[in-house]
Design goal:
The chain is α/β, with parallel strands linked by helices and 303 residues long. It is 48% helix and 12% strand. Helix 5 packs across helix 7 (164-188).
């Protein structure tokens, strides 16, 4: 069980393409893969924190000797996955998370600690009917910003050729994706009815399930007419007054408890009076029978 707010990681990865042989350029099958894909960069941000981070292959010493070896980069991402309770990515279930885990197992890393995932592309598709569910379009639609423009595939080729300017631009591009991702996630958050229950994860049952913020106590309200009705029910029909009385006593609001206790007390008083009147009535009947019919056996009447 969680004792504090869950760690929520927003992230996005960028990868190098496959290098392969084909017999043509239109709807061709790959004849042979010459070079496998690998990870170039990833950007991330912990929800609730200000800074967005980016990590790339040139950040590690291994890059100078083996520029296509992403082992150290992948290890860093694995550590973040292992720390996170919730992962958020756009198209993350189909791409980012599966691609990351493909590299984890390639580098013989154990599975990270179990986590929940939120795919903002799936959220957009499930709850809304946008013209496009792409990150850039959603950012534009919500007036939250757009993805950073770049020259296209040549940016990836520049990184693969160890061009410092290309690496700088790739990192900036990656960061902007995560910045935009967070804004879009927060925009759609209130609509998510299948969001991991953050309130329960942090041990607070009376909290918003999506963001974990404490819910305001519901103010107890009862009309004068209803209150009087409960009191009359309690006094005139004693047993029935216990039902609303007990229900209101269980309420945490002081006013509700007061109404409940008054109803219970009136029920008890009315019950005592009813029992007393019944006894007095029976005794009066007995005396009247004895007086009018001397020696009459009252057991015949059950008295």
């Amino acid at each position: 069980m969680y004792s504090k707010a869950p760690r929520t990681l927003l992230f996005d990865i960028e990868t190098a393409p496959l290098v392969s042989y084909t017999w043509g350029i239109w709807e061709q099958d790959v004849v042979e893969v010459k070079e496998e894909w690998y990870m170039l960069t990833f950007a991330y941000k912990w929800l609730g924190e200000k800074k967005t981070h980016v990590v790339s292959l040139p950040d590690f010493k291994l890059y100078k000797k083996e520029p296509k070896n992403d082992r150290e980069l992948v290890n860093k991402l694995w550590e973040l996955f292992d720390e996170a309770d919730i992962l958020i990515a756009h198209n993350g279930d189909a791409f980012d998370i599966k691609k990351a885990q493909a590299r984890f197992i390639q580098h013989e890393l154990a599975p990270p600690t179990p986590f929940k995932s939120i795919d903002t592309k799936k959220v957009a598709k499930r709850y809304f009917k946008f013209d496009s569910n792409k990150l850039d379009h959603l950012g534009q639609y919500f007036n939250l910003g757009r993805k950073m423009k770049h020259e296209g595939f040549s940016l990836w080729l520049g990184c693969m050729a160890n061009n410092p300017k290309s690496w700088k631009k790739m990192c900036d591009y990656n960061i902007q994706d995560v910045v935009l991702l967070e804004k879009i996630y927060l925009k759609m958050l209130p609509y998510m009815d299948n969001h991991p229950n953050v309130g329960l994860m942090q041990g607070n049952k009376i909290a918003c399930p999506n963001c974990g913020s404490k819910l305001k106590d519901v103010v107890f309200s009862i009309s004068i007419g209803k209150e009087i009705g409960i009191y009359l029910l309690s006094f005139l029909l004693p047993p029935l007054g216990l039902f609303p009385g007990i229900r209101y006593v269980k309420n945490t609001d002081p006013k509700a408890k007061q109404v409940g206790w008054v109803a219970i007390v009136l029920t008890v008083i009315s019950s005592v009076i009813t029992i007393w009147l019944t006894v007095v009535t029976i005794n009066s009947v007995n005396k009247a029978i004895d007086k009018s019919i001397p020696g009459f056996d009252r057991q015949l009447l059950g008295l």
